[in-house]
Amino acid sequence: xxxxxxxxxxxxxxxxxxxxxxxxxxxxxxxxxxxxxxxxxxxxxxxxxxxxxxxxxxxxxxxxxxxxxxxxxxxxxxxxxxxxxxxxxxxxxxxxxxxxxxxxxxxxxxxxxxxxxxxxxxxxxxxxxxxxxxxxxxxxxxxxxxxxxxxxxxxxxxxxxxxxxxxxxxxxxxxxxxxxxxxxxxxxxxxxxxxxxxxxxxxxxxxxxxxxxxxxxxxxxxxxxxxxxxxxxxxxxxxxxxxxxxxxxxxxxxxxxxxxxxxxxxxxxxxxxxxxxxxxxxxxxxxxxxxxxxxxxxxxxxxxxxxxxxxxxxxxxxxxxxxxxxxxxxxxxxxxxxxxxxxxxxxxxxxxxxxxxxxxxxxxxxxxxxxxxxxxxxxxxxxxxxxxxxxxxxxxxxxxxxxxxxxxxxxxxxxxxxxxxxxxxxxxxxxxxxxxxx
Length: 438
Hints:
This protein is α/β, with parallel strands linked by helices. It has helices at about 5-10, 105-110, 115-120, 200-205, 230-240, 260-270, 325-335, 335-340, 365-380, 415-435; strands at about 15-20, 30-35, 40, 50, 55-65, 70-80, 85, 90-95, 135-145, 150-155, 165, 170-175, 185-190, 210-215, 230, 245-255, 275-280, 300-305, 355-360, 385-390.
């Protein structure tokens, strides 16, 4: 009997999710569904239904279930002009999608489903080389007020990807391209909270990269928060990944979010083996240590043996002062020399630089912090850089196409539509930046 793992491995290295669908028309109709059979989890797709009543309001319902049994849903009302409905082109009348959302409807329904990103992506298990994350079943159902016209069930997962732990001195997991292929290396850096960015590494592996999701805090032998993290620990991860048997090329890329974005820019500016750098809501300034939303440590975040660079201190908390204001106030209060010595020399990065910002980031002022980096890149004539800003996006800019809702009480900023559009639009730019490694 062929095991499920063997079946996944036999998909000829298809970097995507499987859409195993079959139309289940109601007795009153003979609708037929057309959709792709295989595509990546981050690839948009359309859903065409033939045999629907023309000039009729139709309800399109997405329902799903996680491995835990928890369910989620989203729905939209569209109008059919003929007896053939192309979901992404249909006029939206009502439903859960924000008005004017610039994301294809079929995948936008996943993004706005009534489940948080954390609940959807969290598996509670360390990645294994059999499958990660577990299956998530989706059902698309077409209804009128009187009846169900038909439905399809889709099963999507990351492709079979080899996942292994790093060397004895490093903490993290390496995601390799499918089917034993090799590809350029990318070091993936989490934020201040230490949550592993396995999903990012897995998606990059789908696109032919060997991605190393490194832990630099909250792991065995590591500090609990970004406080004097040995700089050599991260640079040794760069060297280790470059020498990995499944890595091609002389340079590797860096992807980081929040403080990981700050760290990626810093490492890229000081290590010749680093090429392209992508910073998601990161910083062009070096800040003192501590969790971004917590208490500053009074010591540097990164253990640098360099007197020419120093970290900027976060302003003291005052009555009614939020974490965002503390960073803003610190920048305003800093003198020219303080800012200069805390500014990362990003012009030294040996490759393209992509800065991705949600202007409504309420954790720290990403727009200003990335502008500091952009202005320096521009002033020093760096050959390739871009600062992409999304006005209605916040701190959390996930990869497509995953739910973008945040848990109740989240103060990370951004609207549902803004975060969904940023997730949809920024990812091709990320892949384009790293394509320079090929």
